[in-house]
Amino acid sequence: MIKIVNKLTYPEKELEESENIIIGIKDFNAWFNDFHVLKDVCVGFREKSINCIIGPSGSGKSTLIRSINRINDDVDGFIHQGDVLFNGHIHGRSIYHKDVDVNHLRTKVGMVFQKPCVFPKSIYENALLGVKYLKKLSKHEKLRIVEENLNAVSLWKEVSNRLHEKATTLSIGQQQRLCIARTLAVKPTVILLDEPTSSLDPVSTYAIEKLMLQLKEQYTIIFITHNIVQAKRIADYLVFMCEGQVIEEGTKEKLFSNPDKQQTKDYLSNEYCEC
């Protein structure tokens, strides 16, 4: 089972000793106005691995990952308690510490949404959209970044002769890979993906899964999916959530073969649980 960061007295030391846990979440609660979405969540996400979060709709999966890069801050009525520790980037402090630069945090923790979020600009401009605000770039540097990151998502050969066409002319699967390329361009450490293949056809889904398996060599991936078979194909570690709580977490092999909780067994076997 993944070790959890249980004490926050010396957060840097705790994280260093937590077997490659790059993000440690401790006693985290979240509300939207009076609705208690996340309840005492404690979980650790492993570095350079695919960490899959699974669970029924409404279990708090999206709220959890959107708390990791503080997107929920922009939602009216959002309240939180507890800590999210990001090892090595904010000196062991909670990402909710008053001195944390949220914009910097979001360059280190990128986000890809369920539906491709391309802008009404060219493919070229979409690929550069995040990085161009971070520093001034020459024309040569811009093209290098575009080519490098479109290559990383296996899209360069498909679009290299149409870079100045609208991104909306791409297929949905290509748009999703473009969104991932845009995220990679800012050099994140962690990539959050909220059901990125749910609207894709099987061929595009396979392309994204293959990409995730390649990217985990360099990045930590936190991946929400409702697809149990998909989780079994690509996950290294599983986190099973239900009704705002983490029911069980551990390696894929452990949870699929011998889970500790009956709810986990029911959900992975029948996609049904009574939590």
From TrEMBL:
Keywords: ATP-binding, Nucleotide-binding, Phosphate transport, Transport. Pfam families: ABC_tran (PF00005). Residues 23-268 form the ABC transporter domain. One of its GO terms (cellular component) is membrane. GO terms for molecular function: ATP binding; ATP hydrolysis activity; phosphate transmembrane transporter activity. Gene3D superfamilies: P-loop containing nucleotide triphosphate hydrolases. GO terms for biological process: phosphate ion transmembrane transport. The keyword Nucleotide-binding applies. This is ABC-type phosphate transport system ATPase component.
